[in-house]
Hints:
heterodimer; A: mainly alpha; B: alpha+beta; 4 domains; 10 strands; about 60% helix; globular; cytochrome c-type biogenesis (chain B); Cyt_c_assembly (chain B); heme binding (chain B); CcmF_C (chain B)
Amino acid sequence: MILLRGMFLSIAACALALTCMAQALEDPAEEARAQALMRELRCVACENEPISQSSASIAEDMRARVRTMVGEGASDDEVRDWFESRYGEFVLFRPTGKGLSGLLLWGAPFGLLIVGGLIAFGVARRRQAGASEVEPVAPEDV
Amino acid sequence: MIELGHLAAFLALAASLAQGVLGLMGARALAGRAALVAFGVMSLSFLTLVVAFARSDFSLALVANNSHTLKPMLYKIAGTWGNHEGSMALWCLVTLGFGGAGALWMRTGRDVFEARTLGVQGWLATGALSYLLFASSPYLRLDPAPLQGAGLNPILQDPALAFHPPMLYLGYVGFSFVFALAAAGLMEARIDRVWAREARRWALAAFVPLTIGIALGSYWAYYELGWGGWWFWDPVENASLMPWLIGAALLHSVAVTEKRGNFAAWTALLAVLAFLFSVMGAFLVRSGVLTSVHAFAVDPKRGMVLLTGLVVYGTFALGLFALRAPKLEGGKPWQMLSREGALAVNNVVLVVAALTVLLGTLFPLMAEAAGRTISVGEPYFRLTFVPMLAALLAILPVVQVWSWGKADLSMLWKWAAGGVALVAVFLALGVGLWDIPLGAAFGLALGVWLLFGSVGELRRRAVTWGRVFRMPLRVWGMTLAHIGLGVFVIGAVVETTQRYEATLALPAGGSGTVAGWNITLKDVHAIEGPNWYADKADITARRGSAKAEMAPTKRYYPAARMPTTETAIHKTGTGDLYVALGDRRDVDGETRWVFRVYFNPLIDFVYLGVLLMGLGAFFSLLPVRRKPA
């Protein structure tokens, strides 16, 4: 309950800040890049919301900062790094792939896919070795 | 009254214990009777809780803490399971319900096996009931009784949410019976075609409500939270997605066991995992280790009990599996490129996808234990989970045609040509004409590919269109579920890449434009409901000749001191115009109201697709008329 109430208070606080329609960047490509970045940065005052959606004043500031940096020609990684150094890793909805933990987080899904594939391959080969002449059977009802 | 319910719950515990002991001793008939008695008395017990809620009996602590006299009747009743203790009572009721259903409807002709299944289910029920009675009792009285209750969490006062938890629990707990079937099958080291035919029905009986429950939860989040999206990769959403993915893998694997006698060990493992993932979901949600909308009545001690249960169930089942899996018999031979091989790939991907969701959900917790705060959000799942499943779906239409044992590869080049042509068309249309991102063009091609593939396969098996409606229900079930995947993919791709959102701050009489819609605020006035009061905005939305009156509302529930958003949604046929009322602002002496406006194209396809998957599973569950011999 307490958590919930906190969450709604923060949303209410978010809605107080109004000027959400900040100046978009002139170059549509840059604006699109800025918006993509906004979708993966976490609003630090809200519950599980990216700054692209939040109307908290802090999110507004963060959006402006993204636009400024993109407008000055910063790369996506430079923007992410700046926010990370300022607010900590918490702010990145796309966690960094650096270090051992990054390797684990980003590598594990594909590693598991490879391991699972190899196991399935191994089993299939064993089955195949015993099956010189297999009669194909059409699937009836599945 | 409630004391009667309390007593009945103890009787249910005794009956479940008897069911557990008798069942493992192999007494099918007696265990079955015990299961029915347990379900009967627990129904009575649950009914006393429902009645206490319906009559707002505040001498019951649970009612006092979670209900209110001014609440509409539907939410009084739904309030029974809108809290921790009550939802655990529902969990117990459903567990016993599946035990009773199993006692009545298991048809394997193997008495000892069925008795053991009921036995294991009895022990699961004993565990759940002990937890209910000794760690989170809903039957406690308050003295003196308060005159008024604290009210149900307002955001839960919603029709979709009234039915979301029962549906989800039918799914989660339904897997407990599949778990019991797997344990009993492993005990006698016989996971064969007869076993699979039985297990498949129960897995479907769990999968259908789980699918509907997830859809309801997602739809609720869409219109109630006012954030415009339908899936937030919130830990609790993930907790329901993981058993669903394992369940989907199970349904495909159990078909192999049923038809060919293969994958026996793997199917048994999935049957066990589906329930373990369900319990883990309950643990993650209820223990409060994850912060989320659902973390009502968070209590670390209860979390420890749930975690212990999870470890005990897991150790028992996985230990049994390790002992017996090597003794299971294989089925008919198959080659790598065959229906079996393709379904093995399906299973690897679905299970790894579930593990990816698990990793993404737990990683922030693990990092926190190491002293770091990390967020894992939508971009992570978009870059790992989504491509994995997209690749799996891309091969679906091709391998769906393959035969058991050995695939006929002579048509492969036609499939390749068809796929390339489809992608080319959508790349040309998408990037050239519609100006959508490259990924969206691929996604649309994938959705259409799935639709063609599913319908084409139905037609291929029926040989002529005329015979399509005489195909077995199971074929229709499969077809509908796969069509549902296609519809879902199209909806998800269009909605996520083409959604349009904006914030407007309007004075009365003011207007703004979003996605071609002219939004005019007529006025905002205060209204009152049974247990809330609200600001209601009257809006006229116009686009060309189309016109819609909309009334987004912001409610305030005094009993809970909490606001909720009642979004206004206008279905245009191609999407939803979605307006949520925010706060009131005074700028330079002028009153303005903040609105968040979204245009969500094809969002209905997302829900339609999921419902088709559920409907397909339901068709597959329906009994088949025996062919005359």
